[in-house]
Specification:
four-stranded antiparallel sheet; 12 helices
Amino acid sequence: MSKVDRETIERLISQTSDTNISIFIPTHKTGAEGKQDPIHLKNILSEVRNELKASGWKDPDIDQLFSPVHMLIEENQFWLHQDKGLAIYFNKNHFDYFKIPVTPNADHYIAENFMITPLLELQNHHGVYHILVLSQNKTRMLKSAPDELTEVAIESVPTSMEEHLKFHVAEKSLQSHSAGNGNNAVFHGQGGEGNSDNKELKLFLKHIENKVTKYMKKVNGPLVLAGTDKIVSYYREANSYYNLIGGSIKGNPDTRRDEETEEAAWSLVEAFFREEIQSDLERFNNLRGGGLISANIKDIVSGAYFGKVDTLFVSMKNKQWGKFDPESNQVQLSSEKTDETVELINFAAVSALRTGSTLYGLSPEQIPETSNLAAIYRYKT
């Protein structure tokens, strides 16, 4: 499995052969439904086998083609660590798969190109971000990347109030005795509302903030906070990191699984990664009335193939079958898939990638004109 970015997708489409198979299935992280995922994949492989046999393939050749997929199906540990979806790509020379954080429609495609549109959302705006889980029991920091969720150690500082009090209050008491004034430091407990409690909580969070900010300034990217309103508010007072996300994951973080925390964080941080998309969507709208934009699929399929498209907005869900003849520069739409048709939205996306266009995978309602494709042209003749 590879990290999904533009380079990954470009490498994928460079591996095409005469017969390329793309398979998509919804997957489940846990529970009884997860046990059905490999069975679901087996069923789709049976459908692919029937289509290949109908086109002239023999069983021994199909078995050899399917070999890496069968190995994946039998790998029990693989199915214990899934996301919302799985995309599998293979031909006689290449095999790859991607665990994806969006739920795809169960489907398969046998074509001259791999079906890449479900991957476009990942390469556009699912970058690395961090989540600071603020808790008096144990404060932790998580790093969310497209392929994994890991914990980042917060070093050289107490990460619980118990540790903080053990060292800091004891140190103050020692200093008080050394001064000879006879006053002992008093703390009223983690859950209280006394001024002394709040001061200790703020000091605890400031120590955390110093270490976290030092780390975040090195790696950059957005930081999301998770915790109760009080503890998040105190942390914000101390914060000096510039990419701290405005919202937070509310509630007691000690009772939430890390995967649930990550999912809640993505809903807050998604806008950060969509800034570039929004900028190009605004550019599309600003160009209305001129000749450098289009939402006509026939026009865009041709323009993408001949390298005229600067920016392409692509529907990740919808399909449009049809034919394109480069010699006559004619595009014909079809209401159904046949042996002679190709999926034109994917065809335009592959063409745009090969000619250096910027691509964004969006839901149909997010695309200008609520169409399946929209484009900003480099030039138009």
